[in-house]
Amino acid sequence: MIKLVATDLKMQFEHRTLFEAKHLHFCQGDVVHLRGDNGSGKSTLMKILAGIQTPTQGKIEAQGFQPGPWWRSDSLLGKALYLHQHPYLYDGSVEYNMTYALPAPLREQPDIKQRISESILHAELGHLLQQNATLLSGGERQRLAIARAYIMQPKLLMLDEPTSNMDKDSQQLVLNMIAKLKHQGTGLLISSHQSCELTQLCHQEWKIAQQQITTSANVTSSYQPLSTIASSQSEQTKQEQQYVSAN
Amino acid sequence: MDGSWSALIQQAFGLLFSFDPEVWSIISVSFSVSLAALLITLLPSMLLGFTLAFNQFKGRWIITNIIQTMQSIPTVVIGLFAYLLLTRNGPFGDLRWLFTQQGMIIGQMMICAPVLVALSQAAFTSIDRRAWETARTLGVSWPRAVWALCRELRVPLLLAVIAAFSRILTEVGCSMMVGGNIMGVTRNMPTAIALETSKGDFAQAIALGLVLLILALILNFTLGMLRGKAQPRSH
Ligand SMILES: Nc1ncnc2c1ncn2[C@@H]1O[C@H](COP(=O)(O)OP(=O)(O)OP(=O)(O)O)[C@@H](O)[C@H]1O
Ligand SMILES: [Mg+2]
């Protein structure tokens, strides 16, 4: 089974302990909601799992991945893909940003091409492909970042507040893409400080509180404020409308 | 000074555009030596600049300061140092590189590298850390991720290259000491200007001075255009 296992994890910044965790498993197929107040360390935990930040203590093992070349065999990089809270886009067209991480020969393979056009469609970026990515709006940037990750077909994906600052339509697009990834078996870790439609996809919860990370199964679905039920119903009717108009 | 200014300048243009072999041999020595020094130092210097910017390690502070200091050492002093290295009895005397183009290249590399390292370190320090993190977490290999940063930083890095190149192309001290100003071999534009002027042969000196002047103009206009294009980013 493909997974990340963290043991005895501890993160400190200058003697201030951010969080501790004895055991954390993040497996392919899991859909985890990461909760915590502002500044509790959600982004930091994700960066540690992505291998771009080192924890003060503890180790993280990647299990079940295809062995890479020897010089990067023990690296976490590229195992669980991390999507920044505010994504960074390179100076270049939207298309360049989307396919940047793919080695050039791969871009011509039919299945990858299919995946690229799929992600353009889902993120509704078709009309912006040639625009400079640094000029996109906040919501468009987030959509592009998710499309870029979608193309890479990661086994594990970590999304840091993917729908903050988004309007309803963009949120719906992102929700659909994430649901698709979930359907394809991608392990998802989604941070959000509040429950929303997105977190209803999750069947596990990690909570950072009092400097401890606690894990529990399926809390979000039982905890569902009325407002989100109402909005999800309205989303459903909207989808039906779209379906009707598409036919 | 014999002859009027206009006559001198006419003579100088005459030398340049009649393709006087001596003048053009001097120009070609200048360019081949400086380009070689630049090309050899370019990649290692940029990588060192990147490493200094992106890694916290013991001794980083001291290396950074040494490189900053080396930038301001006069070129004659670097020339003296290179001379001592390359002289018959020196540590690299067996190479017999004193008064050759190889020797000049070594000397110019010592002038060029600190400029490249310091300016590229400044450039790499200025970039958003997420640019690096994004590439790496998407599974991009180390060299390709560095390349992506260079692409983001193309303006400041090109500025670094131009600054380094114009410094070595125009320096006199080191070339004079290590090269020895031998016609057809190690005489380049700055050393030729110094010599011809001291001999009173101003036409050739002015011709070469013009070449340097035009080059400086071209490089600086390029710089200006690049600076003008660069815009602060909002995200
Ligand atoms: N490199 C660093 N050096 C020192 N302190 C840091 C560093 N990075 C993060 N912190 C601190 O760690 C804490 C957690 O930051 P983090 O970004 O992980 O929070 P978060 O849970 O993602 O918050 P939010 O909900 O606002 O996104 C913050 O108080 C922050 O100031
Ligand atoms: Mg955060």
From TrEMBL, chain A:
Superkingdom to which the source organism belongs: Bacteria
Residue span(s) of domain ABC transporter: 4-235
InterPro entries reported for this sequence: AAA+_ATPase, ABC_transporter-like_ATP-bd, ABC_transporter-like_CS, Metal_Ion_Import_ABC, P-loop_NTPase
Signal sequence annotation: none
The keyword ATP-binding is annotated on this UniProt entry: yes
Keywords, in A-Z order: ATP-binding, Nucleotide-binding, Transport
Pfam families: ABC_tran
Transmembrane segments: none
GO molecular function terms listed in the Swiss-Prot or TrEMBL record: ATP binding; ATP hydrolysis activity
Family statement: Belongs to the ABC transporter superfamily.
Protein name: ABC transporter
Gene name of this polypeptide: tupC
TrEMBL record, chain B:
A GO biological process held by the record: transmembrane transport
UniProt keyword list: Membrane, Transmembrane, Transmembrane helix, Transport
Subcellular location field: Cell membrane
InterPro entries, per database record: ABC_perm_TupB-like, MetI-like, MetI-like_sf
Ranges for domain ABC transmembrane type-1: 27-223
Main location: membrane
Entry's family note: Belongs to the binding-protein-dependent transport system permease family.
Name of the protein in question: ABC transporter permease
Organism the protein comes from: Shewanella gelidii
